[in-house]
Amino acid sequence: MEGLERILSEHPFFAGFAADHLRLVEGCARNRRFDAGQYLFHESESADEFFLVRHGRIALELASPGRAPAVFETLDQGEIVGASWLVPPYRWAFDARAVELTRAIGINAACLRSKCEADHHLGYEMMKRSMPILTNRLHATRLQMLDVYGKR
Fold first, then answer.
1. Which of 16, 56, 62, 59 is nearest to 39 (CA)?
2. Residue spans of the chain under pLDDT 70
3. Which of 34, 74, 118, 141 has the least CB density, counted as fewest CB within 10 Å?
């Protein structure tokens, strides 16, 4: 497990994270691999894991009946995938697909939520790190929508 602790500590999301909190997160983590075209998850499925991208690219997609999925963001090494694990009812709001061979750390959501409940300092730190990412992604999506639908 020493390797996972080192990998977590080197990921930008956990930069400067307290060592005791990092050990708690490590207990919920495992290595994951996704081949090109493989889905990490689909919209409305249970959000039971979130991912730290170590290598590769992940496309975030919105499915629409009768149309090809619309990619609204592509994530690269050093980014996180998925925040629906934080908010009840813990269901994915979109699909995530590996664009190329992708290696990630998967963090079990139920495990981490229980540790955040037991240690509110850990929970607060996770929220502080997650909210700016969510806010930036929301703004980026808004700008894309304005670009697509704003021109007539």
1. 59
2. 1-2, 144-145, 147-152
3. 118
Cβ pair 40, 81 in contact under 8 A: yes
1: Cα separation from own chain's centroid: 21
**Residue 13 carries which DSSP code?**
G
> Shortest CA distance to 34 belongs to which of 58, 10, 12?
58
Q: In 3D, which of 26, 13, 83, 97 has the Cα closest to residue 50?
A: 83
**Predicted local distance difference test score (pLDDT) of residue 140:** 75
CA dihedral 145, 132, 79, 69 (to 10 degrees): -20
pLDDT at 1: 42
Q: Tokens for 49, please give them.
A: 């894991």
What lies within 8 Å, CB to CB, of 101 at 6+ separation is: 33, 34, 35, 36, 55, 56
Q: Looking at residue 49, what is its pLDDT?
A: 96
